[in-house]
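Pipeline run #58 for the internal structure catalog. This entry was flagged by the ingest filter as a single-chain record with no existing model, so it goes straight to prediction. Upstream metadata was stripped on purpose; only the residue string is passed forward. Reviewer on rotation: M.T. Logging verbosity set to normal.
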Amino acid sequence: VLRQSSGMDNIGGMSIGLLVSFTICWIFIYLTIFKGVASSGKVVYVTVILPYVVLVAFLIRSLTLPNAGVGLKFFLVPDFSKILQPMVWIRAANQIFYSIGVGFGVTITMASYGDRKDNFVGNAVKVACINSGTSFLAGFVVFPILGYLAHEMSIVNPCITGEDVGQLKSILGLSGSSLAFIAFPIAISRMPWPFFWAMLFFIMLVSLGIDSQFAAMENVLTVIYDSGVVKKLSKPKLAAIVCSVNWLLGLIFITSGGIYWFNLFDYYSCVIVLFVAALLECVGLMWAKKEAFEGFKIEVLEATGVSIGVILMIMWKFVNPLILLVLCVMSFMTFDLMDAKSSKPYPEGRGYLPQWSIFLGWMLALGPLVAGAVAGFWCRSNDDEASMRLKGSVSAACAHELPTAAPGLWLPPMSAGAIAVAPEVIGTVASTPPQLVASMATAPGDDATGPKPASNEPASNEPLRHVMYRCGNI
């Protein structure tokens, strides 16, 4: 299917079958997300529930296979000799970040569409527990099948005894695409009713892939659409553009050398940026502003009735940043993540990786950090400039000095001149405190004595994302 070339420097041709499948998948992604969560929210009932049904079916079958115990032993008995290898911890942390969506912004985007009164604290705990539980359950599916495969391979390969699943690594690979598209299909082909199990397996893979992909695309679309960069584009048109661009960029992955480029992105793209993103989230909440965490605690308590305790505060302020900082340092301890220096052309080896692939990989790894730093400085300078314009406009319109807006404090109405100027300025300043907005606009029907104090409490059906924007400073 892959028609794998000799190495990364040999792109080769493009498989028509893969091109058609790739295009169909992106069309399906577009049809899922073009209306936003209104359409994607319905699809998850299938793409989330179906894999669990298939997983349970495979669990029952895998535990009854010959040599399943060998696979379970490989899964459950730890090899402590690996514990001091930095790459083991990096890959383990990356897996957790990938599966939960930490650092990607996906969970925050999806949660922002919910009602503000949803118990998002409980939801966060449930997601983390379900994720880890599913991973553990999947281990009881995958490794018995690998034990069965080792038994079957020992019949035709004298180098494999069938008593150690690790022996498969030298010929098949036990992770990533090798596990999903080589080891597992071989094992399934040797089971009774192979067509039935193969169909179930690939339906599960497609469901999981689509589920992950449309969540990532929804995240991108939400950021672009809500930023106001493309004000004149409707969401369906924006979704079409984003999906088309991603389809074009992904064409390299379906060439004969595409598997090498896929592995390059898999190994390098998130080797450090996820850790830095999570570290900045902790620093921004606990260290950047003294009042940020207190405001966050109040918001959580008002919305869910859950009080954030001392343990979470210690974890977010000290423990998590320290662990993330260590992971960031460890990420640089292995420079050649794909062993390019010792690679050999396929089929003699797993494929030749030129030396420049190492530098290209680290450009992929560090590029988002550089882009994020530039965007951060640009946004900060724009915010400072907008704040200065706001202060100048208010000073010019008011005969007296505007009192400082404290959290929860309603300011008295200002003169008509200020009301005429301020809304125009505020419309360009996303971070304007809601109290300031309340003080500078008179609600229709209010008399000249001044409006009633504006409440920060949203309507019960107001999406959480609107509250996030209105209370952006918190």
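catalog note: The longest helix spans residues 356-397.
catalog note: The chain has a mean pLDDT of 80.
status: ready for reviewer M.T.
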